[in-house]
Each structure stands twice: as structure tokens, then as C-alpha cells.
UniProtKB/TrEMBL annotation:
It holds the Pfam family FAD-depend_C. Residues 283-479 form the FAD-dependent protein C-terminal domain. It comes from Chromobacterium indicum. This is NAD(P)/FAD-dependent oxidoreductase.
Length: 533
């Protein structure tokens, strides 16, 4: 097959026009084109004209001869092999079973790949199964009742379950492992469009049933999923792991333990430091959630094409390098979504963004965050970033007035340096509720300075971004893990053999897709170790 890139058509083209465009691009008779599939579809809004841009895989007669005709043209190349190939298969007599700690996107894919290779993993998840977890999460949003073991951060599906469900990433992926992730999602019930859309997403409601289906496959293949099983300690034999101890006093023995922790597993991080597992502090970002009317973003991004069904709710990605040396950027943008309470600890306020598949809520929201680093902002040991986060989250709880209300401010007042006393035209979506105040009272001064500088720059890219009534809701503190549980080329901890740090909590992923890819990589490392390779 041949892959054609940069095939551009009008927004409202017909399927027949796409087929004609493929044949026309190749300058081949229509009968020679035996079939084609869309590998990727994106859009191009430059020059005021909206077009769809395709990457197409074509099954064509006389392929070698045709390809030779396009020699030197980067738009035509042989279609790469994107199939996934397992690194091994567990022998029937293998008695050891790997343990996977955590059942978010990384843990799910680590367990799934291990199960598909016959290793029958045991998964230990501190939270509850996804539907019960959803009820507990709504308890915080509707009644200000926090369950510290079952919330946005902890439970089946991980933090990604209560998000926009974005399935794109900027990671290098020469083995096309991201394709394996997307294929497994489609098999579990995701719409097939995620295989070809340039910026696919699923949304919370669809993720719930998909997670359940993937759990069922792991169990069918001989794996186990044990919920409400918090790992409180490691069982070590010198520099080797031999298993884990649970909060209920039980033990699970294994010489191969995957740590697929989320970025909020703070008590587990503290345990690992006490056990001497090598970790190091890493940069992350802090800031707020910013909400605009989705109609404003649609108009700014799509112009006269706003509302077109193929385009849906518009998103954006913004970056500004401030004069004080800080990067200010949009993070985890959620078109047509809501700002959600995402704390996992009592008397702390944390925000995140979430969308459903339809993305039809009235507001657009995004993280509006500033980069920070351990060298400058939280010097100390590997857990210094946790202390930095907790201090900000506690201040946000106090400034919000308690009961998990979040502090909020109008953008215009934030720019003017004065506290807000009432809302304007934009109604914030955060539940349990917000308290109008001055966010400069809790944000670090360098953040406030950089954010105020960035707003006019962002408004030049998104007309109306500097809307006075846009709402800032604080705080966004868990953009990524504040530490890295460093691993070697074999996927194992630098100083504890048999321990495999993985995913977002270990500092090796950021988002659903990259976490899933890392889960696959770590599953392969475990398989090789168990097979003696």
C-alpha cells in the first residue's frame, strides 16, 4: 500500500470527491485504485478558508511502478506497518505472576498486554470500580463529601476517566504503540473515528464503559483486578522486590511489580522514599482554570464555519514565554466542558477540566498555568514538589471559604489587581461552588506577573480571550507528577530490581495516550525479565 499525505479538500466534500481526489493525486486510472482508508484527518483554517487535510493509505495496482514515479516526493511513501507484535508469550508452566499497582490508563495497558501475552497479572487498585467511584466523585461535587480513597484521582480508570478523554500526544512513537492503544479502545467500545481524527477524544461517559470492557478482557485472559487494595509498603530482599504489603495487612508476593501510580499518589511516594527507592524532583506547572463562553472560542477559531458539525466545539493551544523567564501556557483544554473539583486530600482545593463526548456545555475551560522548577521554586528532596502543591491547595481551600468551594476571580479584575465581588456574564461550572476573591493572594508572585503579561498575547491569537467576565478558578496544581521514579533501560528502578516505575505518577507520561503507551513499554520490559531475556 502507499500512503498519501497533504491531500486537501473543501470542508463539505462528498465521499465520491475524496475517491476522485485520491485517484487524481496519483494520476492513476480509477480502476487501479482497489481501495483506500483514511489514516488521519485534520483541518486547515489558514487564509480564511476551512479545508480538511487527509493522510490516506491506498491499495493500488502496479504499486512499485507508481511509487517510482513519485520518487523524491515526500507526500507519497510506502504505508508503514502499524501492527503490534508481542515480545513474547508466557510458558504454560510459569508460576510467577506480575503485580500491577494502579488501574489508570497506564496500569490498564500494562495489565492488558501482560494478560494478552499469558502472564495473568494481579492488579491492585486502591480505589473502587468505576461506577461506584463515579458515585463517590459526585458526592464531592454535589454534597461537598470527599472520599479520600475514591475520587477524581483514585479508582478504576485513573484521573483520565474524569477528563476530556483526549487521545493525542506529542511523544515520539516510532513503533506506533499509540495505534495499539487506540485499536484496543475501539475494541472496547470507542468510536472508530478516534483512529483517524487528528485530535480524537472520548469523554467521561464513554470511558466508563470502555474501562469495564477492558477489565473484563483482562479477567477473561486469567488476570485479576482487586479493588480497594491500597499498597502501603514494599517487601524487599536486599536490592530486590519480593512483593507488596497492603493496608489491610495482607501481602501479595511477586518478583515483578509495576508501579503504575497516578500523579496524586502522595502517600505512596512518601513510602517509596522511606524505602530508599531512587526518585528525583521534576518540573511541573501551577495556575488556574479559565472559562470562556464556548461560542466565543468557536467564533475566534472557526469564524464563519463555527457550528459546522464536522468541526464541533473549538479548542486552542497557547504558549507565551514571559519576561521573567517563565513559560505560560494553556493546559488540558476542554471544549464544551466543566471545571471539576479534583482533590484527593481533605481540606484542599484542586481543579481539573472535564468534557463529555458531545462537548456541548456552555463554557470552554482550560488550565492557564505557569512553569515551575525544583532548582528555583522548591529546592530540597524529591518530595519537595508535594509540599509546594499542598501549601497552595490548602490556601485555596481557605480562600474558598471551606466546604471545597474554590476561589475565583473575573479576568478583568485579575488584570486590574483587585478582588472580584460578583460574577459577570460567564457562569462558572465548578461544583460545589466558587467564592469570589483575589487569586493573587495565593498564587506565587512570579505566576501572577507572568499570567498578566501573557493575557494580551493570547488575546491576539484568540479574539476575546481577554474578556473581562471570563472566570479564573483556582487552583490547578496537578498538571503532572512533581517527581520522577527513575528507571533504567530495562524499565526497572535504578536501585530496586524487579520494580518497574510507569506512567504519569512515575514521571514518564502525561495524558491518556502517552500513559497507555508507557504501560505497553513497561509490560514488555516485565515480560522480557520474566522470560530471562
Amino acid at each position: 500500500m502507499l500512503r498519501i499525505s497533504e491531500l486537501k479538500l473543501p470542508l463539505d466534500h462528498t465521499p465520491e470527491e475524496l475517491a476522485d481526489a485520491v485517484a487524481g493525486f496519483l494520476k492513476a486510472p480509477a480502476d487501479d485504485v482497489r481501495g483506500f482508508t483514511v489514516f488521519k484527518r485534520s483541518y486547515d483554517a489558514r487564509k480564511g478558508v476551512m479545508s480538511l487535510v487527509y493522510i490516506i493509505d491506498v491499495d493500488v495496482a502496479n504499486e512499485d511502478k507508481l511509487f517510482a514515479r513519485f520518487k523524491g516526493d515526500r507526500r507519497v511513501m510506502p504505508t508503514p506497518d502499524t501492527n503490534y507484535y508481542y515480545v513474547g508469550q508466557a510458558p504454560a508452566e510459569l508460576k510467577q505472576r506480575p503485580v500491577v499497582v494502579g488501574f489508570g490508563p497506564c496500569g490498564i495497558f500494562a495489565a492488558l498486554i501482560l494478560a494478552q501475552m499469558g502472564f495473568k497479572p494481579i492488579v491492585l487498585e486502591r480505589g473502587k470500580e468505576v461506577r461506584q467511584r463515579t458515585k463517590d466523585t459526585w458526592g464531592l461535587w454535589r454534597k461537598s463529601e470527599l472520599n479520600t480513597e475514591s475520587n477524581v484521582q483514585y479508582g478504576e480508570g485513573g484521573a483520565g476517566t474524569f477528563s476530556d478523554g483526549k487521545l493525542y500526544s506529542q511523544i515520539k512513537d516510532p513503533r506506533h504503540l499509540g495505534r495499539k492503544v487506540l485499536t484496543e479502545f475501539v475494541k472496547a467500545g470507542a468510536p472508530e473515528e478516534i483512529l483517524y481524527l487528528a485530535r480524537p477524544h472520548i469523554g467521561t461517559f464513554r470511558l466508563v464503559s470502555m474501562v469495564e470492557n477492558m477489565r473484563a478482557e483482562i479477567i477473561e485472559l486469567g488476570g485479576e483486578i482487586r479493588f480497594e487494595q491500597r499498597v502501603d509498603d514494599l517487601i524487599l530482599d536486599g536490592d530486590r522486590v519480593r512483593g507488596v504489603k497492603l493496608a489491610d495487612g495482607g501481602e501479595v508476593l511477586s518478583d515483578h511489580v509495576v508501579l503504575a501510580l497516578g500523579h496524586s499518589a502522595r502517600d505512596t511516594f512518601q513510602m517509596l522514599e522511606k524505602r530508599g527507592v531512587y526518585m528525583e524532583a521534576k518540573p511541573f506547572s501551577v495556575g488556574v482554570r479559565i472559562e470562556h463562553p464556548q461560542s466565543l472560542i468557536d467564533a475566534a477559531r472557526w469564524g464563519k464555519y463555527a457550528g459546522h458539525p464536522l468541526l464541533g466545539a473549538a479548542d486552542y493551544k497557547l504558549v507565551h514565554h514571559a519576561g521573567n523567564g517563565r513559560a505560560v501556557y494553556s493546559f488540558c483544554m476542554c471544549p464544551g466542558g466543566t471545571v471539576v473539583a479534583a482533590t484527593s486530600e481533605e481540606k484542599r482545593v484542586v481543579t481539573n477540566g472535564m468534557s463529555q463526548y458531545s462537548r456541548n456545555e456552555r463554557n470552554a475551560n482550560s488550565g492557564f498555568v505557569v512553569s515551575i522548577s525544583p532548582e528555583v521554586d522548591y529546592p530540597g528532596g524529591p518530595l519537595a514538589g508535594l509540599d509546594f502543591q499542598r501549601e497552595l491547595e490548602s490556601k485555596a481551600y481557605e480562600l474558598g471559604g471551606g466546604d471545597y468551594f474554590a476561589p475565583a476571580q473575573l479576568l478583568g479584575d485579575f488584570m486590574a489587581g483587585k478582588a472580584s465581588t460578583q460574577l459577570g456574564s460567564v457562569e462558572p461550572s465548578y461544583k460545589p461552588g466558587v467564592t469570589m476573591t483575589d487569586l493573587a493572594r495565593i498564587l506565587p508572585d512570579f505566576c501572577v506577573e507572568a499570567m498578566r503579561e501573557a493575557i494580551p498575547h493570547f488575546a491576539r491569537q484568540i479574539r476575546g480571550y481577554d474578556l473581562h467576565d471570563a472566570v479564573l478558578t483556582g487552583l490547578e496544581t496537578r498538571t503532572s507528577s512533581p517527581l520522577r521514579i527513575t528507571r533504567g533501560d530495562d524499565g526497572q528502578s535504578l536501585n530496586v530490581k524487579g520494580l518497574f516505575p510507569a506512567g504519569e505518577g512515575a514521571g514518564y507520561a502525561g495524558g491518556i495516550l502517552s500513559a497507555g503507551v508507557d504501560g505497553i513499554k513497561v509490560a514488555e520490559a516485565v515480560a522480557k525479565a520474566m522470560l530471562g531475556r
